[in-house]
Amino acid sequence: MTDGIHRIQVPTPFAVGRVNVYLIEDEPLTLVDAGPNSATSFNELTNGLAELGHSLEDIELVILTHQHIDHLGLVSLVAERSGADVAAIDVAVPFVENYSEEAQKDDEFARSVMLRNGIPPDVVSALSAVSQAFRAWGARADVTRVLHDGDEMSFRDRTLHVHHRPGHSPTDTIFHDRERRVLLSADHLLGHISSNPLITRPPGGATERPQALVTYLRSLEQTREMDVDLVLPGHGDPITDHRTLIDERFALHRRRAEKIHRLISDGPRTAYEIAQEMWGNIAVTQAYLTLSEVLGHVDLLLNDGRVRELDRDGTSVFEAV
Ligand SMILES: [Zn+2]
């Protein structure tokens, strides 16, 4: 694909479709992400490597971009088969090493956010069941190389600069080859869809609802300033004009915030009611994504002082100021 970086598109059971696993032909021989934990994904990853002239056993390093299971699930199996090191940013380590417990806590956090924001209990239960059913597509892994924001990873032929860019998840990490002006962006920046600013339980035990979209937009501003000619995302095709794309994302989120402000100006509403007005009757599996979208934009309005949050018998209602 570019200077020794190859893409292997591994299938996932999720709406997003295939996930991009990147092979960096360098020393160490490196995989960026591994795909979800399934036999089909494992076979396609193995076949993809074979087509590129490598076997799974040759892999020396697996770099994890963030905690989501479509990227994480096979890391442990690849590391076991190959003896590869596993590298992940410091904030991701507790999640990666205690996957089941952490995923359970994430679900509980999500459940309380949903109930607080007016999603009916039967929808919340259904969504919890879906999440449980998907749990096995992830798996814990031992992180043998802990990365930090600002680190440099040295390879024989290149150096990758490590940057923490939270927002889509609390652990999003991007990897920048300054010399070649190439950026491995994972799900922080995707070309064909805007990244979901998923509301996720913050690392470190804080219980307050995090402002995921606010965090995400701040991260995106930092990425916009980077000198990059080619972005290799976690899903979909490479991106060549990241500044134009990021400006489109900023405009999209501004438009969406204004639309939500107009709805709230008609009268106080819960985030769930806003989501239904925006997207109609939402599939159960999309309820948390759309809630995260709405709350993210409501946060922008809250921070601008244009909306306030009221408590109506334990449910949050948003009202124009
Ligand atoms: Zn993903």
In words, what does this structure look like?
The structure is a single chain. The protein is an alpha/beta fold. It contains ten helices and 13 strands. Helices cover 39% and strands 19% of the residues. A six-stranded mixed β-sheet has the order 1-2-3-4-5-6, with helices on one face. Strands 7-8-9-10-11 form a five-stranded mixed β-sheet, with no helix packed on it. Helix 7 (212-224) packs antiparallel against helix 8 (242-265), helix 8 packs across helix 10 and helix 9 (271-279) crosses helix 10. The longest helix has 24 residues, at 242-265. It is globular, with a radius of gyration of 20 Å. It starts with a strand and ends with a strand. The model has no long low-confidence stretch (mean pLDDT 95). Zinc ion (ZN) is lined by residues 16, 19, 68, 70-71, 187, 234-235.
Largest sheet: 6 strands, mixed
Structural class designation: alpha/beta
Summarize the amount of helix as a percent range.
Answer: 25-40%
Beta content comes to 15-25%
Morphology call: globular
The helix/strand series, from N terminus to C terminus, equals EEEHEHHEHHHEEEEEHEHHHEE
Point out poorly predicted stretches: none
Terminal CA distance reads 52 Å
Q: What is the count of β-strands?
A: 13
What ligands are attached or bound here? zinc ion
Number of H/I helices:
10
What integer value in Å does the Rg equal? Answer: 20 Å
The main sheet orders its strands as 1-2-3-4-5-6
**Mean pLDDT across all amino acids:** 95
